[in-house]
Design goal:
globular, alpha/beta, 432 residues, Arc Repressor Mutant, subunit A
Length: 432
């Protein structure tokens, strides 16, 4: 248990911290529109550690001009908080903010056992509750049972390319040669350094990323899942980061790390639950085939370059594909759409992404950084044409770096879009 005196001291310091927030100077993020202010639902923001969850909540609360209390549970002095301490926290909140405070923001709450029961009680008392967490299990199992659908889930990623440009004051609407050059420079900086908000103005980006990965492994995985072989977990994590955009070969990983297939799958699941890794399933009408065949991507491109012994970032095509996938997840987040990759057989040509509404394919997307080579161009376009016939989808997109144009092949139109144009477009209107 943690004493009331310590809790009161921590919460008083946190109250003073939020008074320094200046929301007008922060980058606007599209997830701000996902909050449901007129509902009685808990607003739950989840995402990888340091993606900006806390800042997002502070910004929307302060922009709206509401009075709220703040409790950050990711404080070493509150590390031993137990279920029975939550009522003491509430008492301290009332002492500091008044008993009529209408909003309560609970930051990084996932490690407190039984927290969902506490939130449910707060909701029944007509408090408006904001919650953040860095683990996907925040919205599974017991939470879904105890809150019985009384929450609005908002997933937050690190900065998109558009948000990155906004942060660095890059003119994305200009048509001049200078504006175009600035956008291209920003793009290469983005795929090298990534979009973690706190890292943007740091010189020691490597130190930041290495520290972040360790925090995720230790706080969000090792501690939560009681991992004993931490070194194996660390090696697998770095291997997956190095090999993003590839199919996961569990047999190979099992032999490489001398671990059982079951353990490898568990570790990958933990990396996914901590949002470090995003997993893409194969498009198939057979459930078992979708589950067994997966590709892995990393949540932010900056994770590849800024690590010790990092040799994985030489292929710019893979980095572009990774960025496109994460942006697809953002674009699909509020549209209730699914994304898969398409590969009907080992000798068939692969299509990087299939956007689906239930079982219906809405768009096929291929990613290739450079399509100047006739061989590359034919490989990428023929894969789209073949998949178009198989999936009965005529909305075909090829994301390349440099050009935007429409091309007709075999009676089908392929929309070739520059990576810059595609990334700076909010969503695909063809989905509507």
């Amino acid at each position: 248990m943690v004493s009331e005196k310590i809790i009161l001291q921590v919460l008083a310091e946190q109250r003073d911290e939020i008074r320094n927030y200046q929301p007008g100077k922060l980058v606007s993020r599209k997830e701000e529109s996902y909050f449901e202010w007129d509902s009685n639902l808990a607003q739950v923001v989840i995402g990888v550690r340091r993606s900006g969850k806390s800042t997002l909540c502070h910004k929307v609360l302060q922009d709206r001009g509401v009075r709220y209390a703040y409790v950050n549970l990711d404080d070493d002095r509150l590390a031993d908080i137990k279920t029975e301490d939550l009522n003491t926290i509430l008492s301290c909140v009332y002492q500091l903010y008044g008993t009529d405070v209408p909003y309560l923001f609970l930051d990084e709450i996932q490690d407190v056992d039984g927290w969902y029961l506490f939130v449910n009680r707060l909701l029944r008392s007509d408090l408006k509750v904001f919650v953040t967490g860095s683990n996907a299990k925040l919205l599974s199992g017991e939470l879904a049972t105890h809150l019985t659908g009384r929450y609005n889930e908002i997933r937050l990623f690190p900065f998109s390319f558009s948000e990155y440009c906004s942060f660095h004051h890059i003119d994305t609407s200009g048509l001049s040669t200078k504006a175009d050059a600035e956008k291209k420079t920003a793009f290469f900086s983005y795929i090298n350094n990534g979009g973690f908000p706190e890292m943007q103005n740091l010189r020691n980006k490597r130190g930041y990323i290495e520290g972040l990965i360790e925090a995720i492994l230790q706080k969000d995985i090792q501690k939560r899942f009681k991992i004993r072989n931490v070194e194996a977990l660390r090696k697998i994590a770095h291997h997956v980061i190095d090999n993003s955009c590839h199919e996961v070969n569990f047999d190979e990983l099992s032999k490489m790390f001398n671990l059982s297939d079951k353990t490898i799958r568990k570790y990958l699941s933990y990396l996914q639950q901590a949002f470090l890794v995003q997993v893409l399933n194969k498009h198939s009408f057979k459930s078992m085939e979708r589950i067994r065949n997966t590709k892995s991507y990393i949540v932010d491109p900056g994770l590849q370059n800024n690590r010790e012994n990092s040799m994985a970032a030489e292929n710019i095509g893979w980095r572009l594909e990774n960025v496109v996938y994460i942006d697809l997840l953002r674009k699909c987040a509020n549209e209730f759409l699914d994304v898969y990759y398409y590969k009907p057989g080992p000798k068939n040509k692969e299509v990087d992404f299939v956007v689906c509404e239930r079982s219906r394919a809405l768009e096929l997307i291929q990613v290739a950084y450079d399509i100047d080579s006739p061989k590359t161009f034919k490989r990428e376009t023929s894969a789209l044409i073949a998949a178009s016939d198989a999936l009965q989808c005529s909305n075909l997109t090829l994301v390349a770096f440099a050009e935007t144009r429409d091309l007709e092949i075999d009676g089908k139109v392929i929309h070739i879009k520059s990576a810059l144009d595609w990334l700076l477009t909010e969503k695909d209107n063809n989905w509507l």
